[in-house]
Amino acid sequence: MYSNALHTEFSSIADLRQALNDRRISAQELAQSALAAAEKAADLNAFLHIDTELTLAQARAADALLAAGQGGPLTGLPIAHKDVFVTQGWRTTASSKMLGQYVSPFDATVVDKLQKAGAVSVGKLNCDEFAMGSGNEFSAFGPARNPWDATRVPGGSSGGSAAAVAAGLVMASTGTDTGGSVRQPAALCGVSGIKPTYGTVSRYGMIAYGSSLDQAGPLARHAQDLVELLDCISGFDERDSTSLENCKGTPNQPGRIRADFEAALASHPAGKPMQGLRIGVPTEFFSAGLSNDVAQAVEAALREFEALGATRVSISLPRTELSIPAYYVIAPAEASSNLSRYDGVRYGHRTHSYGDLADMTSRSRAEGFGPEVKRRILVGTYMLCHGYYDAYYLQAQRIRRLIADDFQRVFNADCDVIMGPVTPTPAKLIGANQDDPTADWLADIYTLAPSLAGLPAMSIPCGFSQDAKPLPIGLHLIGNYFSEGHLLATAHRFQQATDWHQRKPEHA
């Protein structure tokens, strides 16, 4: 049995907030039960670092705010952070031996905002090393496991974040999405997760993988809870050079997403809540590589949207297949640059035996980085070499622009939102692709293009596979720039009419 945490008795953050405000439960009780649930579910390997005293200190502070009548929407909420957000007190390792004992002197902006909102952190969550992976199998501390079937991956790189929510260990978690690393694990673990428009959430204090792609996003059971979390963490941050001050003329600050969400809900009649919504369905998303289970679940979800009043429109995103080679040129090139700081000199792992400075750096990196990180650094370094930069990196950036243009063409002429599968198949067995380390790259086929374009996108549960142990399947929702509130409202209407998001693993 994974969890009997007290927060699982509440259907939403709003319900939990009411119970806390009424003093029917305390933040300390919630924190203690979450800590106990995390310990009981240690076999999932979702958590990398838990510090009971730090968690309970935050819970006591939350209770003090509640007692003074100063609690906010997230005060007392038990959450946990992906281990690429730097945190004071808890270790921040990026699931790598390179940072095995690192403790940051400051909090990431996302962490700081949630803490100031009163959320209580239970600890740090497992992920692929430096967020490089699609299954959470490349963690230096072992893979996190899918709560629906412990022999399966939870998805990556935010696998621990999705597993912890699915198993009921926390009510919500933070993740990061470079090429699908919030959406994919959300889909494979049967929870909801959103990647906002690039630049709307601060990257300050988020360990960089691909700087032009990385974006923080929350995971929770359903879309309405995501509104609370994303609205809290979004906003301009002068410490992040990629942070946006305005979103199409609207200040990038808390309140924007909530207002857009509420306006989108109010604009539709109760009987046909999706009346007038045009759903673009790309023909390229239903290719030969898509499993029957996923295709059937997505088709059933689209029919449900049509029953709610939406109109389905067939569209084409002709450069979908080019997103894989473009991404796996751009992201490794940026990773090669970002990870050059880990040289054994200033911080991070340093080898015990070396000759000169060059030997120390070489040995430290060889010992500290795992195989997938080394692979991507080597690929990226090659792409940036003289003679190859123009042939590969610049060409990939040109393709990236064309991919973004494809999205704008269909949004301007054909549809309001794009829908399709998140992954080609349900969760695979742990170790299934160990003989072909690039096979997992193909699993990103549907999630890479929105990331390259910087668009908001999310995953919500929409069905299950026909396996002996049924596995969750996710529906991909992609919106135009700054349409997070509209996306979340669309997902919420679907979840009001279905119960996929309420299903829980047998032991959760």
TrEMBL record:
Its EC number is 6.3.5.7. Keywords: ATP-binding, Ligase, Nucleotide-binding, Protein biosynthesis. It is an enzyme of class 6 (ligase). Gene3D superfamilies: Amidase signature (AS) domain. It catalyses: L-glutamyl-tRNA(Gln) + L-glutamine + ATP + H2O = L-glutaminyl-tRNA(Gln) + L-glutamate + ADP + phosphate + H(+). The keyword Transport does not apply. InterPro entries: Amidase (IPR000120), Amidase_CS (IPR020556), Amidase_dom (IPR023631), AS_sf (IPR036928), GatA (IPR004412). HAMAP family: GatA. Allows the formation of correctly charged Gln-tRNA(Gln) through the transamidation of misacylated Glu-tRNA(Gln) in organisms which lack glutaminyl-tRNA synthetase. The reaction takes place in the presence of glutamine and ATP through an activated gamma-phospho-Glu-tRNA(Gln). Belongs to the amidase family. GatA subfamily. This is Glutamyl-tRNA(Gln) amidotransferase subunit A.
